[in-house]
Every structure is written in structure tokens, then in C-alpha cells.
Amino acid sequence: MSAGRPLTKAERKAFNRAKHEQKIKQELIAQHGNELGQFYYWLRVANMRGTQTYREGKPDFVREVALALHNVYSRHFG
């Protein structure tokens, strides 16, 4: 409940989605450790958002994520 009223259908859907994502993040961290688990979670999020924006015809997000991942890789292995 929020502000003393029941959640609307859209609010409930967003709340359930957030809880689901939180559960996935916690499972990845438990399985792989904190740093690698968080990395896998953000890679998952970037993959989902990249697919959505690519389908919308906006590939800029995909380029930005690829550049960010390359920068992280270069920092640790370059």
C-alpha cells in the first residue's frame, strides 16, 4: 500500500517487477560473489534495455553500453 490507498494496476506491476529484479540480483550475488554477481546483473539489465532500444530504432544506447564495457575491460585487463 502506498499513501494509505491500494496500488493501481500499473503501480502493482512496477512494484512486482522491481521485487523480481531484486531477487534476481540477490541470487546472482549469492552465486558468483559481490563484484561478479553485480557485473552479471548489470550486464543482464544492459542486454534487456539494449534490445528494447534497438527494437525502437535507437541503437545509441547499445553503442554507449558497448563503450562502457570496453572501458571496464581495458581498465582491468588492458
Key traits:
78 residues; mainly alpha; 3 helices; 82% helix
Plain-language structure description:
By secondary structure, the protein is mainly alpha-helical. 82% of the residues lie in helices and 0% in strands. The protein has three helices and no strands. The protein has helices spanning 9-32, 34-55, 60-77. Helix 1 (9-32) crosses helix 2 (34-55). The chain is flat and about 55 Å long. The termini are far apart.
What secondary-structure arrangement, pairings included, does this model have?
Blueprint: H1 9-32, H2 34-55, H3 60-77
Helix pairs in contact: 1-2, 2-3
Main pleated-sheet profile: none
Form type: flat
In terms of per-residue confidence, which ranges show pLDDT below 50 for 5 or more consecutive residues?
Answer: none
The rounded distance between the terminal residues' Cα atoms is 49 Å
Number of helices: 3
Structural class, from helix and strand content? mainly alpha
In percent terms, what proportion of residues is strand? under 5%
How many β-strands, per DSSP? 0
Mean pLDDT: 88
Radius of gyration: 16 Å
Helix-strand pattern: HHH
Share of residues in helices: over 70%
Gist?
82% of the residues lie in helices and 0% in strands. It is mainly alpha-helical.
